[in-house]
Design goal:
It contains eight helices and eight strands; from the N terminus they run E-E-E-H-E-E-E-H-E-H-E-H-H-H-H-H. By secondary structure, it is an alpha/beta fold. Helix 6 packs parallel to helix 8.
Length: 234
């Protein structure tokens, strides 16, 4: 174990990767304690796991070695990759989630996440655009880590894309179809359109999540794509 890991509780739920690591996926456990979450992630009958779990107190538990394929993403897609488990490191955050009283994430937890994620991103050369939420890769099924997750703190350390600050006035997309195509180009699976819009809002404009496409959303998406095309979004 490295200095960033406090505990090791190895899960039997893993297999071999089919491709190199190119992304990191952040989850919440949506369970009532870290111990309960770890038990489930280590239960062969549950058939789920993650590489790491970080408690609300900031303690990091290793459950699956990074060179192995943990089972955290489920049915998902990001930027055309559908075997997200093979291509990603999964980090679970001990948190009650929307089911048991959604609340802000603890400072201790985020303070532990930042150096762990920094090491993972550096070791695997993961682009900032590929540090994503579970809701980004599975918008029809998942909400985590949700609208209160402090992406801005990660962005301050260069660990994810920051929310665009300078937006052009006006809606850059002629219609909803053009917006959906742009969402797909950015990386989202748009099969469940409204859910995908909600996932985009949850990540990029969390103060209003209504599933409705509007000019502000269009401006944010347009700027994200423009920055990527200019080589500014790696």
């Amino acid at each position: 174990m490295d200095e960033l890991v406090h505990h090791q509780r190895l899960s039997p739920n893993w297999n071999e990767r089919q491709c190199p690591v190119s992304m990191a996926v952040l989850h919440y456990t949506e369970m009532q304690s870290a111990d309960a979450a770890i038990s489930r992630l280590c239960d062969p009958a549950a058939e789920v796991s993650a590489h790491y779990l970080i408690s609300e107190a900031g303690e990091v538990t290793l459950m699956v070695p990074e060179d192995k394929r943990a089972w955290h993403a489920g049915r998902s897609c990001w930027r055309g990759v559908r075997d997200v488990n093979s291509a990603s490191i999964g980090i679970e955050l001990d948190h009650p989630g929307h089911a048991f009283g959604y609340r802000e994430f603890s400072d201790a937890q985020i303070d532990a996440l930042i150096p762990l994620l920094a090491r993972i991103v550096k070791a695997h050369d993961i682009p900032r655009a590929n540090v994503v939420a579970h809701s980004d890769i599975a918008p029809a099924r998942k909400l985590d880590p949700g609208e209160l997750f402090p992406w801005d703190r990660l962005a301050e350390h260069g660990l994810c894309l920051e929310r665009p600050k300078k937006l052009n006035l006006g809606d850059p997309f002629d219609n909803d179809g053009a917006f959906y195509l742009a969402l797909e180009r950015f990386g989202y699976d748009i099969a469940e359109g409204r859910k995908t819009v909600e996932a985009f809002q949850r990540r990029w404009r969390p103060e209003r999540i209504d599933g409705e496409i509007d000019g502000e959303l269009g401006a944010i998406l347009f700027q994200l794509l423009l920055d990527r095309d200019r080589g500014l979004a790696r």
